[in-house]
Amino acid sequence: MDERIGLISKYNLWNRNIIESGYARKSYTDKISQYIGNRIIKVLIGQRRTGKSYIMRQIANNLVSEGVCCNNILFVNKELSAFDFIENNIDLENFVKSYIQELNPQGKIYLFIDEIQEIENWEKAVNSLSQDYTIDCEVFITGSNSHMLSSELSTLLSGRYVEFQIHSLSFNEYVKIKNLSCDKQGYLKYMNDGGFPELLHFSSEEAKRNYISGLKNTILLKDIIQRYSIKDVRLLEDVFVYLVNNASNLLSIPNIVNYLKSKGRKTSYETVANYIGYIENVFLAHKVERFNIKGKEILAGTHKYYTNDVAFKNYLYNGFGYGIGYLLENLIYLDLLRSGYDIYTGKFYDKEVDFVAIKNDRTIYVQSAYILVDEDTIKREYSPLQSIKDNYEKIVVSLDDIQLPSMEGIKHIQAWKFLDYIQ
What we know:
Helices cover 43% and strands 19% of the residues. It is an alpha/beta fold. The protein has a seven-stranded mixed sheet, sandwiched between helices. It has a five-stranded parallel sheet with strand order 2-3-4-1-5, with helices on both faces.
């Protein structure tokens, strides 16, 4: 018997072995299930620790419940040292052959590969296994680097894969897991905790802070520093800290360079641009282009950045000036992202609109406001939307206890109801 099969058997479902699959995230598994039953490669991408592995296990468990034999499912998890023997595409293909020989699965096999970017030339093996008609094999992969996955997939697997971006827990998922009410108090708790699934296992603030710090360090080290041979590690973290603490502000790379130089950091436009690109590639932050609503064009020069989860701000850098209104805006952005919208920050003459969100034939203008406390605040937040005379939806989202009536066609939505509204 191949000894490696024995070593990794506890991470597989073979012989009705039970592996933990966590909270059922049906919004993802239902969507992915629509693409099962063919040779299209299913690609789950997203930041580390957002739940990609658990979603793959849930898919596998669903297959078993539908009659697939446990021995027809193979998990390869490159985050675990037990799979260190798989270093490249040849190792992977040879191991799959060994698995088939040892377990002798009858009919289609389902191959799940976690953090596939850790396997050198992985795309060659995936292409071969998914397209080899002498083996009936359906492939699911996860990865934590959007640029690497998209470039390799589009080069070799063009037209033969479908991609699903996996995010940390939404507010709706969070309250169900925590058994909280879907109201303002539940939302404020979510805003304070963030959405990383494993955070829910910790009760103390110190434990949560240590977890988020370790997660950030792991991503920076494994996914950026080692992969891109970063020389100035401190500068990389300085850039990340700056993006976190300026989330929702209009930024430009020259501005960031000047700020870093004012703090005594030696750097250049090219270096900062590269570092921000790497941070985006591993999903730590997302860039939002500026959109001229009147001219219907992208404006170059300045952008906004939002963090992939507010936990980075809450637990690592909460000493910096950063109000609850900015956290709300970040969460609204993440809701739009989860819901599949293309998102821009809008400019209409001299007025700014927080978000222009587009999905298929639906366009929504969204303004984020902490609390609509008085007439002046209402006027300030509604004014940019009132100036736009087209017929697209216009929304103001806030944390007010009472939902306000529509004003000139502009709807007021309480933040904890926003995700349901846009879906």
